[in-house]
Amino acid sequence: MNWRALFKPSAKISIIVLLLIGVVVGVVGYFATQQTLHATSTDEFCMSCHSNHSLKDEVLASAHGGGSAGITVQCQDCHLPHGPVDYLIKKIIVSKDLYGFLTIDGFNTQEWLDENRKEQADLALKYFRANDSANCRHCHTRIEENQPESMSKMAKRMHERNAQKEPDKRKTCVDCHKGIVHPYPKK
Ligand code: HEC
Ligand code: HEC
Ligand code: HEC
Ligand code: HEC
Is the keyword Electron transport assigned to this protein (predicted)? Predict the structure, then answer.
C-alpha cells in the first residue's frame, strides 16, 4: 500500500469520516449499555422474578422504606456495587439467577422463599462481608468517625469500640445488624 496516498486530500477525508463514525458508534453504544444496565437496576426489574416474594413489602415496612423522611431505599442500593467494573461483575453473577429462575422448582412462590430464607440470606450476607458492607457505608458515612450528636450512646459506643479493634478482628455492619429489612431467620 502506498502510505503517501493516505495523506491525499480525498483519503484524509475518508479517514476523518471513518473516525467520526467510530466515535458516534462508540458513544451510542456506551449510552445504550448504560441504559440497559440502568433499566435492569430498578426495583421493578428485581421484582419481575421475585414478584411473589414479600421482599418489597419488607423494605416498605422497615426503616429503609417506611421512615418519616419518605425515603425508599432501592434493592440495588443495598445489593449491587457502585463501581462500574464491580457492577458489571455482580450483574453477571446476578444473571446466574436467570438459570436458577428457569430451573428451580416453585422459585417464585412465597413458600419457596420461606423455606429457603436462611440459605438465601447467608448467600446475600457473603457479598456484604466480602466488601466490608460497602453498600451500607455508601449512605451511612458517619458511623465510625464524626458521629452525629443525635446517635444513641449505645450505638456510638459499639461503633467506636469496633473501629478501634485490629482490622481482622473488626465486625462489619451486617455482622451486628442482621435482618434490618428482611426477617433474618433464627435457624
Ligand atoms: C431472572 C430472574 C431474577 C432477577 C431479574 C433477579 N433475581 Fe434475585 N434471585 C433469582 C433466583 C432464581 C435466586 C435464587 C437462586 C440462586 O441462588 O441461584 C435469586 C436470589 C437472590 C438473592 C439471594 C441470593 C444471593 O446470591 O445473594 C438476592 C439478594 C437477590 N436475588 C437479589 C436480587 C436483586 C437485588 C435483583 C435486582 C437487581 C434481583 N435479585 C433480580 C432470580 C432473579
Ligand atoms: C440508600 C441509602 C441507604 C443504604 C444503602 C443503607 N441505609 Fe441504613 N438507613 C438509611 C436511612 C435513610 C435510614 C433512616 C434514617 C433515620 O431514620 O434517621 C437508615 C436507617 C438504618 C438503621 C437504623 C434503623 C434500623 O433499621 O435499625 C440501621 C441499623 C441501618 N440503616 C443499617 C444499614 C445497613 C446495615 C445497611 C447495609 C446493609 C444500610 N443501612 C444501607 C439509608 C441507607
Ligand atoms: C459491633 C457491632 C456493630 C457494628 C459492627 C455496627 N453496628 Fe450499628 N449499631 C450497633 C448497636 C448495638 C446499635 C444500637 C442498637 C440498635 O439500634 O440496633 C447500633 C445502631 C446503629 C444505627 C442507629 C443509630 C441510632 O442512634 O439510632 C445505625 C444507623 C447503625 N448502627 C448503622 C451501622 C452501620 C452502617 C454499620 C457499618 C458501617 C454499623 N452500624 C456497624 C452495633 C454495631
Ligand atoms: C437496606 C438494605 C437492603 C435493601 C433496601 C434490600 N435488601 Fe435484600 N438484603 C439485605 C441484607 C443485609 C440481606 C442479608 C440477610 C439479612 O440480613 O436479612 C438481604 C437479603 C436478601 C435476600 C435473601 C433472602 C432474605 O430474605 O434474606 C433477597 C432475595 C433480597 N435481599 C432481595 C431484595 C430485594 C428484591 C430488594 C428490593 C425490593 C431488597 N432485597 C432490598 C439488605 C437490603
Answer: yes
List pLDDT tens digits, range 39-67: 666 888 899 999 999 999 999 999 999 88
42 is written with which cell numbers?
430498578
Across residues 107-120, what is the average pLDDT? Answer: 97
Ligand having the closest approach to the CA of 132: 3
Q: What is the DSSP string of 126-173?
A: HHHHHTTTHHHHHH--SSSSS--TTS-HHHHHHHHHHHHS-GGGPPPH
**pTM given for the model:** 0.89
Indicate if ligand 3 lies below 6 Å from the C-beta of 170: no
Q: Which ligand is nearest to the CA of 100?
A: 1
3-state SS of 31-66 is HHHHHHHHHCCCHHHHHHHCCCCCHHHHHHHCCCCC
* 8 three-class SS: coil
Residue 176's identity, in one-letter code, is C
Is 78 annotated in some ligand binding site?
A: yes
Residue 113: the pLDDT is 98
Tell me how far the alpha carbon of residue 58 lies from the centroid of ligand 2, in angstroms: 14
3-class SS at 112? helix
